[in-house]
From TrEMBL:
Domain of life of the source: Bacteria
Membrane topology listed for this record: Peripheral membrane protein
Domain (ABC transporter) ranges: 5-256
InterPro entries tied to this protein: AAA+_ATPase, ABC_Ni/Peptide_Import, ABC_transporter-like_ATP-bd, ABC_transporter-like_CS, Oligopep_ABC_C, P-loop_NTPase
SMART domains: AAA
Subcellular location: Cell membrane
Record's keyword annotation contains DNA repair: no
Main location: membrane
Protein name stated in the entry: Peptide ABC transporter ATP-binding protein
Length: 335
């Protein structure tokens, strides 16, 4: 499948009074045409910083991409100039955020806001921009679009506002849409509708989507592939079935055990005990070791190799690492 975006060995740091926070520590992944990749993990794992770095939206300073490349159509975005990035943002790669209100200007009509993007990037007449804005509202499922274009954001419900934000992100037919917790602020039924809308739009337009979430329910509903992030690294990745049914990393298993499953009655939900490590001085070995019930001596000393379990399924864990000391199942439990 055609690669739209290739992120290779991305490192991002933030300089703070307390020292350098290494928020992203060697993240690599590909995004293929027409697929949805979910990046999942707890807050602070680096998933939002990763997506903002792709768009070069991290505040610099204090943020800094210290290493790695982000290839979009053969161009390394980490080296692009700010004017080049301005052309790419919105037109080629679009981003939407959790809270639709922050993306919308309360003093302008919805129509003016959608049309602004069209006029800016496509250099078309106002009449043509209006026509395209109506088409976009149709695409995202807003009824009576011609009338609704004249209304202000506060005249729409939360779910409708998120649809408008999605319309704005899609007006220039970007190849990549990055959605950072796009449904977290919405209630569950609206959440499901918005996630269905993503799938629907993808079918119609072929857009590739990166969805950033802490919610495995969202992942289950939309993702083709999943990257599980922990303490600034992708610790496991695979297609959705591999992650949900054959997830091997103890952190992935912990995430799966901490959410309810509809197919199991009387199941016991087990939260992951402890908290992620301090990223001022990240551990040299596996960052999950302090919370992992399978941690071995080697885990704290050395970072495991990325081990290939199938064509798409990879995991960074000594339990799967062929170099692991034998016998592998010697468990030095930390609990
Ligand atoms: Fe646990 Fe070791 Fe695997 Fe890390 S590498 S997840 S500590 S078993
Ligand atoms: Mg975030």
């Amino acid at each position: 499948m055609e690669k739209v975006l290739e992120v290779k060995d991305l490192h991002v740091s933030f300089t703070t009074y307390g020292g350098e926070v290494k928020a992203v520590r060697g993240v690599s992944f590909d995004l293929h045409k027409g697929e949805t990749l979910a990046i999942v993990g707890e807050s602070g794992c680096g998933k939002s910083v990763t997506s903002q770095s792709i768009m070069r939206l991290i505040p610099q300073p204090p943020g800094r991409i210290t290493q790695g490349t982000v290839l979009f159509k053969g161009k390394d975005l980490t080296k692009a100039s700010e004017p080049e990035m301005r052309k790419i943002r919105g037109a080629d790669i679009s981003m939407i955020f959790q809270d639709p209100m922050t993306a919308l200007n309360p003093t302008l009509t919805v129509g003016d806001q959608i049309m602004e993007g069209i006029i800016q990037h496509k250099k078309v007449s106002k009449a043509e921009a209006r026509k395209q804005a109506v088409d976009m509202l149709n695409l995202v499922g807003i009824p009576s679009p011609t009338e609704r274009l004249k209304q202000y954001p506060h005249q729409f419900s939360g779910g409708m506002r998120q649809r408008i934000v999605i319309a704005m992100a899609l007006v220039c037919q970007p190849e990549v849409l990055i959605a950072d917790e796009p449904t977290t602020a919405l209630d569950v039924t609206i959440q499901a509708q918005i996630l269905n809308l993503f799938k629907d739009i993808q079918k119609k337009t072929g857009v590739s989507i990166i969805i950033i979430t802490h919610d495995l329910g969202v992942v289950a509903q939309v993702a083709d592939r999943v990257a599980v992030m922990y303490a600034g690294k992708i610790v496991e990745s695979g297609n959705r079935r591999e992650i949900f049914y054959r997830g091997e990393h103890p952190y992935t298993k912990g995430l799966l055990n901490s959410v309810p499953r509809l197919d199991l009655e009387d199941e016991e939900l087990v939260p992951i005990i402890g908290s992620p490590p301090d990223l001022f001085s990240p551990p040299t070995g596996c960052a999950f070791a302090a919370r992992c019930e399978y941690a071995m001596e080697v885990c704290e000393r050395l970072y495991p190799m990325k081990t290939r379990l199938s064509e798409e399924h990879h995991v960074d864990c000594w339990l799967q690492d062929p170099r692991a000391p034998k016998p592998i199942k010697t468990v030095i439990s930390t609990i």
